[in-house]
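Hi R.,

Here's the chain you asked about this morning:
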Amino acid sequence: MRIPVSVIVKCIAHGATREEVMSEYPDLEMEDVQQALEYAAWLTAEKYRRPDRDMRFLADMGVSLRLVQWLREQGHDVVHLRDEGFCSDCPMARFSPKRAPRRG
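And the predicted structure, written out as tokens:
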């Protein structure tokens, strides 16, 4: 009899011991339960992938020029808004939303 890995993992996730799982499903052996858990762990393993070097970054005014320089030194293609002609003394940089009137 085939028992899906998800059934075994759910039983254990809900607090059943390996022995309880094996008594519920007599065709299982301890090695089957262990392999099911290892397979589930393998399926859900997170893989770290370093970003490709051709990834581009656009840094806005909230990002320091020092950080932009460091990213460039690390080999990343980074453009700061200041490099594109936007600067802190531009009218949009001084924009602030209207404040709600005070209630008295």
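Confidence is low (pLDDT under 50) at residues 91-98.

Let me know if you need anything else.
M.
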